[in-house]
TrEMBL record:
SUBUNIT field: Homodimer.
Top class in the EC scheme: ligase
Protein family membership: Belongs to the class-II aminoacyl-tRNA synthetase family.
Listed EC numbers: 6.1.1.22
Domain Aminoacyl-transfer RNA synthetases class-II family profile: 134-455
Cellular compartments annotated: Cytoplasm
SUPFAM superfamilies, alphabetized: Class II aaRS and biotin synthetases (SSF55681), Nucleic acid-binding proteins (SSF50249)
Protein name listed in UniProt: Asparagine--tRNA ligase
GO biological process: asparaginyl-tRNA aminoacylation
Listed GO CC annotations: cytoplasm
Major localization listed first in the record, in broad terms: cytoplasm
Species whose genome carries this gene: Porphyromonas gingivicanis
Swiss-Prot/TrEMBL keywords: Aminoacyl-tRNA synthetase, ATP-binding, Cytoplasm, Ligase, Nucleotide-binding, Protein biosynthesis
Length: 465
């Protein structure tokens, strides 16, 4: 028979019809007459109970069905007589696809810490927690594509291997085919990259923004959604060496258009999660974060407060004068930390905040400079629980200003000449932003460690699986 997904059988049950389900055993219990087997196929947070009359099946078959085993069951779908489930399957045929040794299988029926599950990341998708997280991750990716597609923006694939540092930070993973034990040298004694695969130094991308701008200046509105890499030695619950970024870029947009788009976009994603992932969200709220659902609804219930960086600093300084303690200092020119951002969102305004007009010294070279000569038209969206979730700006459209700022930040003209040329050939106002996908998932799932919202985390000293 054609396989039925457990999600379908629970949500739209066809009572008293024969069905076939296939999945992995979560638990098995029973008595001398009947065995109750809970199986899960990954389509839902919920298991389906299989009732096996022991007179119909051999003892060797039943004994081979242990936690973790993969089985297929054909039987009658009936209304459950017991508590805990609405329907169950009365087994007529059972096939064991793969047994599972209960003495070595690490996911027995007991609580497992998230730290332990990271050590067995190849198995953790079989747990309720990570099944829920991965289904939400899929839904958020789908929502992102759906949002931009409906707006008429085009999905652009930007390069993963690049010779430019979009952020000017230098924290990039080098890509090379040279023999690291016998590096070729030039006359000056430096590595001769002319003998490398690309004939020049190349790295994994830290952002698709610069290439995205090129596409926006031809197609009007685009977005990228792909992996990015930062060789930042930060072993914290908020940093990954490999993560995914969403980066829209739109021609003829200014900073206000950009803020409008970012607010609409984040609200769309949160609403999508509430509409399409409710069972998984309820599970995570019950087991990890009691305030999860209310925090998601909180974002939807408010228009985001829009303030300048200077206003934000003034609010924080007033809070300090009134006795508020922060771990990190507050002063004009400081790069605000998460504790500052969360104070503004959670305590002062009690709504999401969009902060604009940052000091140019703490922002990237491509941000448009304001007329005051001190600030740029950057904007960050600050959320409860997480702080900054989006960073963006109106881009500098003036060739001379862009070149000057890049030079001051140590970015060689020879590395970005092609980017600068867009300001020479039909330049227009344009703007965009970047959203770290895993940061969004931290907020939507309520998880506290970014390693738990990506299937296989890459962090300092960790590249397993």
């Amino acid at each position: 028979m054609k396989r039925s997904m457990i999600k379908e059988l629970i949500n739209t049950p066809t009572i008293n019809e024969t069905v076939t389900v296939k999945g992995w055993v979560r638990t098995k219990r029973g008595n001398k007459a009947v065995s109750f087997i809970a199986i899960n196929d990954g389509s839902s947070i919920h298991n389906i109970q299989v009732v096996a009359d022991l007179e119909k099946f051999s003892s060797s078959l039943i004994s081979s069905i242990t936690t973790g085993a993969a089985i297929g069951v054909t039987g009658l779908l009936v209304t459950s007589q017991g508590a805990g489930q609405s329907v169950e399957v009365q087994a007529q045929e059972i096939e064991v696809y793969g047994t599972c040794d209960p003495n070595t299988y690490p996911l027995q029926k007991k609580g497992h810490s998230l730290e332990f599950l990271r050590e067995i990341a190849y198995l953790r998708p079989r747990t309720n927690t990570f099944g829920a997280i991965l289904r939400i991750r899929h839904n958020m990716a789908f929502a992102i594509h759906n949002f931009f597609h409906q707006k008429g923006y085009y999905y652009i694939h930007t390069p993963i291997i690049t010779s430019s540092d979009a952020e000017g930070a230098g924290q990039m993973f080098r890509v090379t085919t040279l023999d690291l034990e016998k590096l070729p040298k030039n006359k000056e004694g430096n590595v001769d990259y002319k003998k490398d695969f690309f004939g020049k130094p190349t790295s994994l991308t830290v952002s698709g923004q610069l290439e995205g701008e090129l596409a926006a200046l031809a197609l009007g509105g685009i977005y990228t959604f792909g992996p990015t890499f930062r060789a930042e030695n930060s072993n914290t619950p908020r940093h990954l060496a490999e993560f995914w970024m969403i980066e829209p870029e739109v021609a003829f947009f200014d900073i206000n258009d950009n803020m409008d788009l970012a607010e609409e976009f984040t609200k769309y994603c949160v609403q999508w999660a509430l509409d399409h992932c409710r069972d998984d969200l309820n599970f995570l709220a019950e087991h990890y974060d009691k305030e999860l659902i209310s925090r998601l609804e909180f974002v939807l219930a408010h228009n985001y407060e829009r303030i300048t960086y200077t206003q934000g600093i003034e609010i924080l300084e007033t809070a300090i004068k009134e006795g508020k303690k922060f771990e990190f200092p507050v002063y004009w020119g400081a790069d605000l930390s998460s504790e500052h951002e969360r104070y503004l969102v959670e305590q002062h305004f009690q709504k999401p905040v969009i902060m604009t007009d940052y000091p140019k010294e703490i922002k990237a070279f491509y941000m448009k400079q304001n007329e005051d000569g001190k600030t740029v038209r950057g904007m960050d969206i600050l959320f409860p629980f997480i702080g900054e979730i989006i960073g963006g700006s109106e881009r500098e459209a003036d060739y001379e200003k862009l070149l000057s700022h890049a030079t001051k930040m140590g970015i060689p003209e020879k590395d970005i000449w092609w980017y600068l040329d867009t300001r020479r050939y039909g330049t227009v106002p344009h703007a965009g932003f970047g959203l770290g996908f895993e940061r969004l998932l931290l907020f939507v799932t309520g998880m506290s460690n970014i390693r738990d919202v990506i299937p296989f985390p890459r962090t300092p000293n960790n590249a397993e699986f």
